[in-house]
Amino acid sequence: MNEEPFLYASRLLELHLVDQLGRPDSVRTVAKAVGGSRARVVSVAALRERRWRPDEEWGPKPTLALVYAIGECAMDDGIKARESSKAIRRLREDHEVKAVVMRADSPGGDPLASDVVAGELRALKAAKKPIFVSQGRVAGSGGYWISMDADTITTTPFTVTGSIGVIGGWVWDEGFGKKTGFSADHVQVGKSADLLGGIRLPILGATLPERNLNEAERKQIERGFAELYDDFTRKVASARKLDVARVRELAEGRIYLGRPAIENGLVDRVATLDETIEAAKRAAGIPARRKVRIIEYPKAPLFRLPMFLRGVFGPLAKANADASATPLAAARLSYEARVLQAILDRPGRPLLLTPGTILPSEVEAAP
């Protein structure tokens, strides 16, 4: 090292640092000459594995959980809040699970579904079990609601997030039934008892109210929107340790890409899903080189069709599943059509939805 900073091949042989000189294609010939027919060439990767210190940790490997919340925020579709919240509760109660990472990719939807999942994340946090959220393409409105309570939120430079706001509407029958020949009848007790009654729309499967709101009813619905918006902004302020006034400056439905979201305190840093998992591992106190077991929810299917067969059997399986679903669910709808469907299904009720015009591409609900 002190006398000869580099060595030629002949010098290596002279110093007995190598046994024989030759080209790469002669390695097998030399190996057989030295070791006989049982000799084999070992790759560098195999040597590294052989020389690596074995795992001498006692007991089972620490467990991390990876939860996918993908699609619109709904109780039994998309993020499937009813099932997902129960799964997160089980992870909180499972002492073998040391940390939870949630992959959030949702444009929002039902406030109840959003808060059911967010409530379980708050419980995880209260139980001192690290919870990290990795945002995908979209984590806006309800998608941000389910993200905000994490210990750390990671994002990408191109993630659409924020959209802290409330949206909704009131669609009514102003001559549609008369033009199409559809009609409805009812018996009414109470001035507003007919609000949610009306004709049943074909294909859409939604009820179209017979009339518009009067002034008193409009004020009551506006109050519901205002209360949900106040609740949203207060929860963001509490989760992200911001002033409510500052959150209101960032809110009103405004969206942010990854780095502006970091600058405004809505998320923490840019990181991939793998990097987020490593950060959760460190937060759980697991040594860097310690191998871990990762469990996923929802569980991956036991069998995946080869790619060339999915085009044949995939549509058949989907058609069978859709046979018992509503006509609208069976159709491939744009995000805008699903927003309209949500408003029809919940007339006058506030929703947590990201406007479709600002989404990076067509957003499909998870199957």
Architecture overview:
This protein has 367 residues and is of the alpha/beta class. The chain contains 14 helices and twelve strands. The chain has helices spanning 9-14, 27-35, 44-51, 81-93, 111-126, 142-145, 176-180, 215-240, 244-250, 258-263, 273-283, 307-322, 327-330, 335-345, and strands at 63-70, 97-106, 108-109, 131-140, 152-155, 160-162, 198-200, 207-209, 255-256, 269-270, 293-297, 352-353. The strands form three sheets. Strands 1, 2, 4, 5, 6, 9, 10 and 11 form an eight-stranded mixed beta sheet that branches. A two-stranded antiparallel ribbon has the order 3-12. A two-stranded antiparallel ribbon has the order 7-8. Strand 1 (63-70), helix 4 (81-93) and strand 2 form a beta-alpha-beta unit. The longest helix is centred in the middle third of the chain and has 26 residues, at 215-240. It is elongated. The protein starts with 8 loop residues before the first helix and ends in a 14-residue tail after the last strand. Mean pLDDT is 86; it is low at 321-331.
Summarize the structure.
The protein has 367 residues and is an alpha/beta fold. Helix content is 39%, strand content 15%. It has 14 helices and 12 strands.
Secondary structure blueprint with pairings:
Elements: H1 9-14, H2 27-35, H3 44-51, E1 63-70, H4 81-93, E2 97-106, E3 108-109, H5 111-126, E4 131-140, H6 142-145, E5 152-155, E6 160-162, H7 176-180, E7 198-200, E8 207-209, H8 215-240, H9 244-250, E9 255-256, H10 258-263, E10 269-270, H11 273-283, E11 293-297, H12 307-322, H13 327-330, H14 335-345, E12 352-353
Parallel strand pairs: 1-2, 1-11, 2-4, 4-5, 4-6, 5-10
Antiparallel strand pairs: 3-12, 6-9, 7-8
